[in-house]
Specification:
Elements: E1 4-5, H1 8-11, E2 29-30, E3 82-83, H2 86-89, E4 112-116, H3 121-124, E5 135-140, E6 146-152, H4 173-177, E7 180-182, H5 188-195, E8 203-204, E9 211-213, E10 224-226, H6 228-237, E11 252-253, E12 261-262, E13 265-269, E14 274-280, E15 285-290, E16 293-294, E17 305-306, E18 308-312, E19 315-327, E20 330-339, E21 342-350, E22 353-361, E23 369-371, E24 380-381, E25 385-389, E26 398-400
């Protein structure tokens, strides 16, 4: 089987020299209002943000009210479905998955982005709700660990968690999906950015209904969960529970497009953790292994799976104004800004094949969209998607075979 080795420096905008970071020998102390996990075996840091791309401007937000509640359908899609225009979606398909829903009122509610921990494995896995998310973004934080931001819209899991603190990527993702944001806290600098964001009125703070502690016998920071149904009730009460409005739209097809290569296994070695996606021909989905173990959803104990796995490497830089970890008054890790705007190269795994694409986000309220080598819209498979955000400075291999 053909094996494709990805050179991360070819996937993003990099021509940056990176100095090696010192390995931490003892646990660092978190800065105020941050709940970070002590780091070990720290990989090379991203470069400092001395000359970076300009963030997309923040447009004004106009809020309206719309009803909520409904249940997505589980019926299989017919063959030959193509969704490229608003008319193709009609009034009963999700703009983020292309899936049919039983009740169109479901599409009139606000998406919710929820921050989920992924470290340490013994305290965070299996996370609850992952298989109900329309999109999940996995990214590195300081110390090389990864964390998730899950976008919930067409499914309503009974609980989601463990919920952890936000990072700078969460200044971008709610704008991309016109979503609310739920998280457990943030460093002072990240909180300032979130409070100044165009979606600040949609932030679901930790004193809102829906959050709760499980009372489990594990570290306190890993016992924070939520009932998302109550989040939608809060959005309704604020007059902000409405259909999302984004600047761009995704495309979907039920049949695989031409031009793919064999892509039944995708591996991303984040140094701290090894992620592997394996294609299952029986149901046409990719299943996730983490460090050689099936990654499960804590609500059902089903293995985490996706219709699409997307690998992109936006520029990762350190923000010199925000410290995420410090010791003895010295900053050990600056906050990492993932510049998920503009465009860049990437790969999409769907239907057991891998496709070279370009990702695009030209305006702040645009979702990520994709084009093929000819510049035509590249369609995702109908269903949920995982986006693996891969740092340009990652030392571990990334491969698809």
């Amino acid at each position: 089987m053909r094996k494709i080795l990805l050179t991360l420096f070819a996937l993003s905008l990099m021509a940056l020299l990176i100095a090696c970071g010192d390995q931490i020998e003892e646990p660092p102390t978190a800065v105020p209002e941050t709940d970070v996990v002590p780091a070990t075996n720290t990989p090379e840091p991203p470069p400092a943000a001395t000359a970076t791309a300009t963030p997309l401007p923040l447009p004004p937000v106009v809020e309206t009210t719309a009803p909520a509640t409904a249940t997505p359908t589980a019926e299989p899609e017919p063959e030959g479905v193509s969704l490229f225009t608003p008319a193709d979606f009609g009034d009963d398909r999700s703009p983020f998955t292309g899936e049919l829903v039983d009740d169109p009122d479901l599409l009139n509610r606000r998406p919710i982005a929820i921050k989920l921990s992924n470290s340490p494995a013994v305290h965070t896995r299996p996370q609850s709700g992952l298989n109900d998310a329309d999109f999940v973004y996995e990214h590195t934080t300081e110390g090389g660990i990864t964390r998730f931001t899950a976008i919930f819209y067409t499914h309503t899991p009974p609980r989601v968690g463990p919920i952890r603190s936000a990072r700078l990527i969460d200044v971008e993702l709610p704008a991309m999906y016109d979503a609310a944001l739920a998280y457990s806290g943030a460093s002072v600098g990240v909180n300032q950015r979130l409070n100044a964001a165009d979606f600040s009125g949609r932030i679901l703070r930790t004193n809102e209904p829906g959050y709760y502690r499980t009372g489990e016998a594990k570290p306190f920071e890993h016992t924070f969960y939520a009932r998302p149904e109550q989040f939608w009730e809060t959005m309704e009460g604020r007059g902000q529970n409405r259909r999302p409005e984004t600047g761009t739209m995704l495309s979907f097809t039920s049949a695989p497009p031409e031009g793919g290569q064999p892509g039944s296994v995708g591996r991303i070695d984040y140094n701290w953790t090894l992620v592997e996606w394996r294609y299952n021909e029986e149901d046409g989905r990719y299943y996730r292994w983490t460090d050689g173990v099936p990654h499960l959803d804590g609500n059902t104990l089903d293995q985490v799976n996706a219709a699409n796995v997307i690998l992109i490497s936006p520029l990762h830089v350190q923000d010199p104004s925000i410290c995420e970890e410090s010791r003895d008054g010295v900053c050990l890790h600056l906050s990492v800004q993932i510049q998920i705007w503009g465009s860049g190269s990437g790969l999409v795994l769907r239907d057991g094949q891998v496709y070279e694409v370009r990702w695009h986000r030209e305006a702040r309220n645009d979702t990520l969209t994709f084009t093929d080598s000819a510049g035509n819209p590249f369609p995702l498979q109908i269903g949920n998607s995982w986006v693996q955000l891969i740092p340009s400075w990652l030392r571990g291999p990334v491969s698809v075979e």
